[in-house]
Design brief:
mainly alpha, globular, DUF318, membrane
Amino acid sequence: MNSFLNNTLALALDSAPWLLFGLLAAGLIQAWLPIKLVGRSLGGHGVLPVIRAAIIGAPLPLCSCSTLPAAISLRRAGASKASTTAFLIATPETGVDSVALSWVLLGPVMAIIRPLSAILSAITAGLLVGRIEARESVEPNPTPVAAVSQGTECGCCSNEEPTQEPVSQTLWGRTWGGLVYAFTDLLDDLALWLLVGLLVAGLVITLVPPNLLNDWGSGFFAMLLIMLISVPMYVCATASTPLAHAMLFAGVSPGTVLVFLLAGPASNLAGLILVRKELGTKALYAYLFGVGGVSILLGLTLDWLIDLLGLDLLAGLAHVGNQAYELPLPLSMFSLLILLAFAIRPVRRYLLRGKVKEDGSCCS
């Protein structure tokens, strides 16, 4: 029991400063890159709007459920089906918060490969949808926005519009509003599943011998199984990172872990239903290929490159708390205390001094 608690605490301390940094960056992005204005650059057809949609969506701090109403709003504001698909895939698969956490829990290689793979899979799916869109002569009439903004709920949040932008347009006002969003709405979305992920990771590190799954955790069938499990379930990008750490520690190959990191956050049953409703059945097939098929191709490629180059991604991760890039303990403890304080709503309301309503949204 003591080993489990120590390992879990070590993981939490290692993660806290990077997660705090990710939340701060996410708040600034939310404040200065409003989702409602993104649609202006996603109109038209061709490759460039799809690439722009993937690149714009990748750093945004939105989970799969929060991405759905944002993407549908973009679609109805004039974005093509191809751009909407690229945005739908790239946004939940990665973000500044999950990349920051990946750096410490998965290592620099996976932290770089993860967002690049998300962008590539999003562009691939978007281009496929673009070809389908070009063949369609008549577009269906869009359904009212209200019909989808109240969609079904997933495991961490509901399909509601992200927190409204603060009324104040001053430098400090917009920045403050973004930070309030990061430490209320976004942290609430992450907290439960991140806690579950840390506990599971601590349990695996304590009980499972390193490299136990070397013989079963790699190859096409292992990736296919992970993909089939991940697509219908919901695990947001940041909360999936500790689980990915545990999988690496247990001997699952980096490529298989990459499939889990891409397929899990980008899809859930509610999202797939809405994709079919808004973009059509053929677009749904392209979406699933972008999420599942491309993920497996990227996973196989990553494992091949790692074998070719002789890399050992577990070398710097095997002993929790002993990474070469470990931060000072006081900083880690301070960061963890801040996150815990803001995760407790009464304490958070006191710290923000009335700037947050009971439902966690910004006050005007």
